[in-house]
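tokens incoming
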């Protein structure tokens, strides 16, 4: 009996340690306009690039987009040059091990509101743990790149989250520095002033979010 109890305690400690880890996805290394898929899940994106294996998988609608892409219409992303967006449906993220405490990210949207739902089941199922409402931010300061205003979306919740549903109007919302286990993107302690952040261009790729930049 004693050994079984010790074994259960050890499992509990391991689970607590897993939930305590803060993970940030900055999408650097994902191909531009490529489906992210298993880039963070021991596999690759749709064009064969691979990243750190965090056990995080994305549905086929979630795409990466580089600021340097000729069809991109965003600028000043919070980290390097790649952000996430979607052109059809909604973008769903699955993290089977689960995380608790908080969830956060940077987002940019010019004229359209959006929302992000956090669930305790995979594939946006189970109990809804919370919703982050995304307000329209207006045209950003970068010339020719409407999506260049970035703001923080965050949520503290009870329970263990295992999937995220990024909703809103397709090709009108960009995301960066998606963070599990913290209400601050990147897991820091100081929240940057929104005015000091770069905003995503309105046309992330091809459509509303992907208009070509002005020369």
């Amino acid at each position: 009996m004693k050994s079984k109890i010790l074994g259960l305690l050890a499992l509990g400690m391991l689970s607590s340690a897993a939930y305590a880890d803060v993970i940030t996805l900055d999408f650097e290394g994902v191909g531009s306009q490529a489906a992210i898929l298993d880039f963070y899940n021991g596999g690759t994106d749709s064009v064969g690039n691979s990243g750190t294996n965090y056990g995080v998988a994305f549905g086929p609608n979630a795409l990466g987009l580089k600021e340097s892409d000729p069809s991109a219409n965003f600028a000043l992303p919070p980290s390097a040059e790649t952000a996430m967006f979607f052109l059809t449906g909604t973008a769903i993220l699955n993290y089977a091990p689960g995380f608790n405490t908080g969830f956060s990210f940077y987002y940019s949207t010019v004229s359209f509101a959006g929302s992000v739902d956090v669930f305790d089941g995979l594939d946006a199922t189970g109990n809804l743990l919370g919703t982050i409402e995304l307000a329209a931010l207006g045209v950003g300061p970068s010339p020719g790149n409407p999506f260049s205003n970035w703001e923080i979306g965050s949520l503290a919740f009870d329970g263990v989250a295992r999937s995220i549903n990024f909703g809103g109007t397709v090709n009108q919302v960009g995301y960066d520095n998606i963070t599990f286990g913290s209400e601050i993107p990147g897991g820091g302690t100081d929240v940057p002033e929104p005015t000091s952040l770069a905003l995503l261009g309105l046309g992330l790729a091809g459509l509303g979010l992907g208009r070509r930049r002005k020369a």
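note: Strands lie at 23-25, 56-58, 62-66, 82-86, 91-108, 114-119, 128-134, 151-166, 174-180.
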